[in-house]
Amino acid sequence: MRAVLVREFGAPERAAIAEIPDPVPGAHEVLVEVRAAPVNYVDLLVIGGGYQFAPKLPFIPGKGPAGVVRAAGADVTTLKTGDRVLAMAEYGGYAELVSVAADQCYRLPDVLSFEDAAAISLAYDTAWFALKERGRLMPGETVLALGATGAVGHAAVQLAKAMGAKVLAGGASPAKFDLLRAAGADAIIDLSQPDLHDSLRAQVYAATDGKGADVILDPVGGDVFDAALRALAWRGRLVVIGFAAGRIPTIKANYLLLKNIEVSGLQISDYRKRAPAQVAACFAEIFAFFAAGKLALGPRQVLPLARFAEALAAIENRTARGRIMLRP
Fold this sequence. Notes:
Elements: E1 2-5, E2 16-19, E3 29-38, H1 41-48, E4 66-72, E5 84-87, E6 97-101, E7 105-107, H2 114-120, H3 124-134, E8 142-145, H4 151-162, E9 166-171, H5 177-182, E10 187-190, H6 196-207, E11 213-218, H7 222-229, E12 232-240, H8 253-259, E13 262-265, H9 268-274, H10 276-291, E14 300-304, H11 308-316, E15 323-327
Helix pairs in contact: 3-4, 3-10, 6-7
């Protein structure tokens, strides 16, 4: 099969398309023919060797592809050849075929295309857990989704609206604010304004009658985190998802005490390992929202597998409008 092979950690251009043997599924695995593989910011971290779980070299990058079951292991009873699935693989998605544990594959409803499933993958499940499990969002509360022009932030805007929240979408690229309005944001928080330390809170307070945001999702970190923490409402919850800005921020614990606020973290892969039933419930609700017309997944660009480096560069440079996926 053809696959993107990483032989050494570094820039994506150092990886290359290679012909390698087809994977053989184990007893509890299925072999999936990949039809669409999402390109995510985390792929840059994995390829560069900066992710917290470093794969053994050489490896095939790519998380959460969508495709068709070609073969099932001897002990698999939940899936069969021909089933359309979202396969939440940790690695291996940038390839024609990938072997994935059967309990990490979710059968797709007929209304969901492979491209739709790839657009959902790793973004909507991350946002769902951040909102519902870590953020404990209740209908009627206000959510601030930071990095909202990125995949997880955009998903958070959509899901929070579907869950009955008022949604503030925070982004630093005014040229992409139309995407946030189309996603259903009630207000835009412009992270490109000067004096972010004060301007972020001022914008949030203006949109919430001085109350602040009940739940904030932060995949950005750095100065954005520092400013966002000041915009939480009393008993507000901020969920740390990542550090796209580069700097890992710190917190003075007395500030948490004074405002009765809390900060938690989300590592979505832990839930796939430790709470597979909860992940299944997550995807069931996301698929149901889509079927009910409550999610508009937004623009996407589909590129051939050979253009993987170009796709990753668009993510790294933040020039992508919507999701990018690879078609083997």
